[in-house]
Amino acid sequence: MKCGDSHNRIIHPGIPIKSLDGEESCAVTATRAALANYPCPKCLVHHNELHNINGTFEPRITKTMQKAYLDSTRAPNKSEAERILQSRGLHATQNFFWSLHYSDPYLSVSYDKLHSDDLGKWGKHLWPLLLSVLAEDGVKGQLARNMRNVSRWRNLKHFGNVTTVDYADGQDVSRDYGKSFDFFKQHFVNHVIEDIQQKGATDNYETRVGEGIHHEVRQAYKQTNCKNTDPQVCSCLSIKI
Sign of the CA dihedral 206, 212, 218, 223? Predict the structure, then answer.
């Protein structure tokens, strides 16, 4: 292939990094989701150990996952095939990335700050738990008043009543302060150091860049005549930038 400096080189294409949320990570690795015994798309941590962010767990690699899949296809009955797949947290799916060079489907799954931290551990677990603690102490209203008094700087988001902001996605949160942290997004912190060492800063592969512009695109679309919208949306966004 002729490169930008006019030299011909042999190119080995691959997909070393994927920017995905948790559900998408399970889809591209053909692994079972959060309620499975082995829910992580990067390693074989058991569901009961998801709280252990300092543990060492067997990593998923193409060789062992492919073997488990092939063993399930040779099983004498469906029950045995399902047992084999469940023991590795796999679906009965032949993963496309197994045959694509330089594209390890498990190693390329990357830590996503948006869904793991902002909308995950904080948004769906710690924030609702914090509100429940403040409510029981009778100071929830004080938090709302303090937030309303924050200076109104340009481009700074301002919350009139922060305690009603729905980060919890409609899910009830236990008032038991010893709540379990055996959930996938808590465990994923176990992989963040490895990802930074291998792929650089998390800004390189988090989903915030793509998903963060959804709101702006929707607003720009509403300003179009709904015909040949691409150049109109781009024009609106460029003016805003």
Answer: negative
Note the pLDDT of residue 160. Answer: 67
Alpha-carbon distance 3 to 67, whole Å?
38
Under 8 Å between Cβ of 60 and 42:
yes
Give how many domains the chain has, as a whole number: 2
CA 46 to chain CA centroid, nearest Å: 19
Which tokens in the block code for residue 94? 């032949």
Q: Which domain holds residue 218?
A: 207-240
Identify the bridge partners of residue 8 per DSSP, sorted by sequence position. 2
In a domain, 124, yes or no: yes
DSSP states along 51-74: T-TT---PBP-HHHHHHHHHHHHT
Listed in sequence order, the residues at least 6 apart from 14 whose beta carbon sits closer than 8 Å to its beta carbon are 100, 101, 102, 103
* Residue range 126-132: mean pLDDT, rounded: 78
Average pLDDT over residues 140-168: 72
